[in-house]
Amino acid sequence: MNGPPPSSDAVHGGSGSSGSGCHESPEPKLGGASSRNTRHGLAIIAWLLVFCAISYWMVAWAHLKYVQGVIWPTDIYAFQRTDFGTLDVAIMGASRASFGLSPSALDQCLTRKLGRQTTSVNLARNSSPIWASNKLVHDLLNDEKTPRVIVLALGPESVDETTPLWAQLVRDFGDLGDIPMGLARARGLSDLLMALRPLVRGPENLALFLSGRFASDRHLRWMMLHHGGGQYCYGNPQCQKNNENISGSLPPWGSKKAMARMARKIHNHFQSYEVGTGEMNRAMLDILDWSQERGVKVALVDMPLHRIYAERIPFQARRAYRSYIDRLAQEHHLPILHSDNPSWLDNRNRFVDPDHLNQTGAYILSNAVCRSLLTPMLAP
Amino acid sequence: MQKNGEGTEQRGGPVVGILGRLMGSALLLIFLAAGVAVLLLPAVHSREFDRARAQGMKDLPPAPMPHLRQGLDNRPLITTLEPRSGGRSSVALPGQVRPRARQENTEEGR
């Protein structure tokens, strides 16, 4: 870069004009200038890649992988940076888990049942099937943050090998090594770009971190610091106000428009359905292996759906899902709580929309999980 | 005699060179500053979060961000307000206080 200035011949060549009329510009020099330009271009690309790689590792080293533009529904950064002491329960799942399982309600129930203070956290992420939960378990729950019990909150979509979300999953949770899989399963240009996103995670997350964008949702931070995450908490007027704010933020779900949208969403997701054969199954088994190595117990919760949602899921998919989680529970001796019974399916008063619970439903489900699953698992 | 951009290169060269060096230096400084921030800020945040957790909650939680609905199912934000159907639950939640105004709108309230 600090070499002598280019000769006029090279400059002529660099212009790319073959008709310069300059007799001192023979063909070899034209080629030389062109290759110099190519070298410069490649150098810029190489430096860009070096910059991306350094910032990628810097972000990974500093545990900033999950600092993202929209951090809903869990402030993972606050979880990573806060000393919670010994964790008793970590809830993994998607938005249904964030709404349906409240660490606040679990801890109140467990404290009563066990006669000691417990600490639960909800680490659910939006649209997170088991492949994403596996990434989060490995990234977040190591060392001093290893819980005694992991609760896997599941739904039919959580274990579907044919999920249309693969590219999005690689974008949000994947590492560099997952890019080929994301590219192979891409279904369009948008998916291709999403699958390549880990390449630019370094600069992107650095910018988000330095701009403070990740800290802009004070509600999520408040929930994580004081109530272990999730959407609802219980036991004081602030929590009551919080719960009302949540319910008030969501539109009602009875309108024809909302129903049509829900039907379209279910149709898009369940055009094909497969369980137990691929990456999702491997991720599930990986979580079980990880837990076994560390003496962590695992419980399964089949998250409640309202009948108008559940019955739109093709029967074959529902049957395959039920059969898969039952087999898994049986083979690995995992306690499981099913919610596909009329007390959930037909009880609209427990839902904020057809597949997410309201504060009442979350309180009832959290207490059921506490009594039937967690109390025996955490009892001395 | 200058032809085909030769003159441009000769006139713009030093300026472009200086600008390039300045931009390069600025980028390097930004990158270094980012590195220092990544080293220092998380520790600062850790102390801040631990202190906030130890102090307990003092303020009412701010309302959720308006992107809540988008985050829920990746749909565009819906702002239409429609009457909510479905009755209130009879399950009593800890800390729950039923607003008097709502009771007054019921038959019992009157």
Account of the 3D structure:
The complex is a heterodimer of chains A (380) and B (110). Chain A is α/β, with parallel strands linked by helices and 380 residues long. Chain A is built from 18 helices and seven strands. Chain A has one domain (69-199, 212-378): Rossmann fold (3-Layer(aba) Sandwich). In chain A, the strands form two sheets. Chain A has a five-stranded parallel beta sheet with strand order 2-1-3-4-5, with helices on both faces. Chain A has a two-stranded antiparallel ribbon with strand order 6-7. In chain A, a hairpin with a 2-residue loop joins β6 (351-353) and β7. Chain A is globular, with a radius of gyration of 26 Å. Chain B is an all-alpha fold. Chain B starts with 5 loop residues before the first helix and ends in a 6-residue tail after the last helix. Chain B is built from three helices and no strands. Mean pLDDT of chain B is 62; it is low at 1-9, 74-89 and 98-110. Classes of the chains: A alpha/beta (380), B mainly alpha (110). Chains A and B meet through α1, α2, α3, α10 and α11 of A and α1 and α2 of B.
Number of helices of chain B: 3
Shape of chain A: globular
- Note poorly predicted spans of chain A: 1-25
Stated plainly, the CATH topology of chain A is called Rossmann fold
Number of contiguous helices of chain A: 18
Give the proportion of residues in helices of chain B.
55-70%
CATH class of chain A: Alpha Beta
Give the tally of structural domains of chain A: 1
The CATH level-2 architecture of chain A is identified as 3-Layer(aba) Sandwich
How much strand content do the residues of chain B show? Answer: under 5%
Overall pLDDT of chain B: 62
User: Regions of chain B with pLDDT < 50 over 5+ consecutive residues?
Assistant: 1-9, 74-89, 98-110
